[in-house]
Amino acid sequence: MSSRKLDQLYRQVIMDHYKNPRNKGELPDSNVTIDMNNPTCGDEIHLHLKIEGDKIAEAKFTGSGCSISMASASMMTESVVGHTEKEALLMSKRFSEMVQGHEHEPVDENGDVEALSGVAKFPARIKCATLSWKAMEKAIYEKESR
């Protein structure tokens, strides 16, 4: 597939997650909730996780922001559910490497997350893309410190 067609496909995936976000909403029985924002552009996320043992059983988010930020939150919540905290942290590390343009292992088996690899070409958007992933990391570390 040509790089132009791949870029177009990736834009479609991002817009699909933005317009039809997965896991958007409250999670009344969450045991970890984190609120974070990106003061540079005004993106904000309220992440709700239900962690059972060391597994992320459910993940939902609310908030507002640009298409990159909200699509990334949708993709992140889809990706981490069913994984252990350790696996989710590794996924976040790989995601960060990807959006910074570094070599990386695949982030997840879903594949949608790879659509955000083009963010590396726009350094100002990296914080938009990583906001939800940083919120997930913070949620796990806060849960562990209790």
UniProtKB/TrEMBL annotation:
<dbReference type="GO" id="GO:0051536">
    <property type="term" value="F:iron-sulfur cluster binding"/>
</dbReference>
<dbReference type="GO" id="GO:0016226">
    <property type="term" value="P:iron-sulfur cluster assembly"/>
</dbReference>
<dbReference type="Pfam" id="PF01592">
    <property type="entry name" value="NifU_N"/>
</dbReference>
<feature type="domain" description="NIF system FeS cluster assembly NifU N-terminal">
    <location>
        <begin position="10"/>
        <end position="128"/>
    </location>
</feature>
<dbReference type="InterPro" id="IPR002871">
    <property type="entry name" value="NIF_FeS_clus_asmbl_NifU_N"/>
</dbReference>
<dbReference type="GO" id="GO:0005506">
    <property type="term" value="F:iron ion binding"/>
</dbReference>
<protein>
    <submittedName>
        <fullName>NifU family SUF system FeS assembly protein</fullName>
    </submittedName>
</protein>
<comment type="similarity">
    <text>Belongs to the NifU family.</text>
</comment>
